[in-house]
Design goal:
mainly alpha, two-stranded antiparallel sheet, 6 helices
Amino acid sequence: MPGKLTSLGALLAFNLGAVFGLIGHLTRTYIFNDVAFLGYLLVAIAVDTLSGIWASLALHQHSSSRLRQVFGKLAQYGIALVAIHVLTSFKVGGEANLFVTTIAPSFKGAIYTLMIWAEVLSVEENLHKMGRGFLPKWVRKRMEAFAESGELPPAPTQPAENK
């Protein structure tokens, strides 16, 4: 009997390994495969959350609803990451999507940059509330203008020097 249980356990472990391997493959292919970026995004979200908690404690504006918003943010980013992966990874006739590879090859990178950018701006806002912002004023204004309109504002011009 012990021999049969050992064989059954090995068979079960093999089958579970195969099932988890298949699930992992399907996830990386059809849902999301950029685990390295996910790590950076989670760090940025954690820094934003911690700076938000610090600001709320310093300004005596405690609110559990703000902390709950983190879960909503995680869900929104998760949905966006899956949608971006699908958009930039799907195959046409078994081949790489020609549109994505030729016309918009850096689309995924641009969206990832905007996600991190949003978190950095939020950290800046939290620290700025306490008088500890780290971005130069002109960078902060341009980031805020972009966040509001989705368009880059014109580059600042330097006044001509009087001679």
